[in-house]
Design a protein that fits this description.
With about 400 residues, the protein is mainly alpha-helical. It contains 19 helices and two strands.
Length: about 400
């Protein structure tokens, strides 16, 4: 081997993580480019017409509601109308930017769980999240923006675990400002408050205050302050659908549209979900569970999100996005149960393929049976390893830390 070859090999060996990071980033961008001109049904029916309306109204249009955007997202779209990209590319560029933030946030969260702060584990997290098919389809094909609120949720979890409480709740407020689905993780913060007493009840008002701050441009343009919150109430009744291609328990009960029983189902779903979460809260108090422990914190986050998805009505297939990312993080941290993350992500992928391309590998009810079984299993390991303190995961975590360190 020549000296030049030896230098090249030494350079590659020294910077292999960075080189791999660049390669994965290029790969992820290349995959996204395949969908740059794809127009989904949502884009043609809603996103594009809303864009035209926002562009024509100009800055004064921020004083009125367009579609069912939340106000901060409408403000961002207004600024994008001033750029020369056009609606399709603008929506996708915005979401893809947050795909990067999402992958980086996931890496930070994994780093916080790793005793050795392994660069390899952070890289694997970035690669899996950034190149995840559902993440790619969501932003580059569907032109949806789920990466925005999920990225802020991951940052909120990272800062909560790091003891930076105000920053954590600011991040949670940012998530709330973009999507109501931030409520999937909100019970975890209540559980953490009760379990660890490391945060104050006074931190929770930060959430609506951040949302209000982001809505200031619209308020200046004449929007009613109550619009900053009522828009979400209106979103939950949009279309009056009990289930929207989400494989939760309501796929067994109805075909989606049943206006006569809609409010009955909706009320039942909320009360039933609150009951299950309430039981979990009681167990956390009674068993004196310490959610400051990494494994408890992560498993409780996953179970809480899964519970909301499974039992709340009017769930879209896209609402599994946060759960899928948390499961990827979980698998990397504990180095086991890879099949669980794979199964949940494949169920989500089935919904994406059905909506975007009309391809259905298997029916919704079949997907619901599998999803319910997965939820039961997650509940089992949550009860076993968190509630009953029969922890088997730290050994696995230490093992993968040793492997990555070597």
């Amino acid at each position: 081997m020549t000296k030049i070859e030896q230098k090249i090999f030494n350079f590659v060996q020294k910077h292999i993580i960075f080189i791999s990071f660049v390669a994965v980033t290029i790969l992820g961008i290349a995959i996204r480019m395949c969908g740059k001109d794809f127009q989904s049904g949502d884009y043609n029916s809603f996103l594009c017409p809303w864009w035209v309306e926002i562009k024509e109204a100009g800055i004064h249009g921020l004083g009125s509601q367009v579609g069912n955007y939340n106000i901060p997202y409408q403000i961002i779209i207004y600024f994008f109308t001033l750029l020369p990209f056009g609606p399709l590319y603008s929506y996708k560029i915005l979401s893809i930017i947050f795909d990067f933030v999402l992958a980086y946030s996931a890496s930070l969260l994994v780093k916080s769980f790793s005793k050795n702060h392994s660069e390899l584990k952070c890289f694997i997290t970035y690669a899996l999240v950034f190149c995840s098919l559902t993440v790619v389809l969501n932003s580059a094909f569907w032109a949806q923006c789920d990466s925005i609120y999920v990225a802020f949720i991951l940052l909120a979890l990272y800062y909560l675990k790091s003891g930076k409480n105000i920053t954590s709740f600011v991040m949670l407020g940012l998530a709330f400002a973009f999507k109501l689905q931030f409520i999937f993780i909100l019970p975890l913060f209540l559980f953490f408050y009760v379990s660890t007493r490391r945060i104050s009840i006074l931190h929770f008002p930060i959430i609506p205050v951040v949302n209000l701050a982001l809505c200031l441009p619209a308020l200046i343009m004449g929007r009613n302050i109550f619009d900053t919150f009522t828009i979400y109430a209106e979103q939950t009744d949009y279309g009056k659908l009990i289930q929207m291609n989400c494989p939760n328990i309501y796929a067994f009960m109805c075909n989606g549209y049943d206006v006569n029983n809609y409010y009955l189902f909706k009320t039942f779903s909320i009360l039933f979900t609150f009951t299950i979460l309430g039981i979990a809260l009681a167990l956390i108090i009674f068993k004196r569970i310490d959610l400051a422990k990494s494994q408890n914190f992560l498993l409780c986050s996953i179970w809480t999100v899964f519970t909301c998805i499974m039992f709340l009505s009017s769930m879209h297939e896209r609402y599994t996005y946060l759960l899928d990312i948390l499961l990827i993080i979980y698998v990397i941290v504990v180095a086991k149960r890879v099949w669980l993350a794979v199964a949940c992500n494949l169920i989500s992928l089935r919904g994406y393929c059905y909506y975007l391309f009309g391809f259905e590998a298997f029916g919704l009810k079949t997907a619901s049976v599998i999803y319910l079984a997965l939820y039961v299993y997650v509940t089992y390991i949550f009860v076993k390893e968190v509630v009953l303190h029969k922890e088997t995961l730290p050994d696995a975590t230490e093992k993968i830390d040793q492997i990555c360190q070597n």
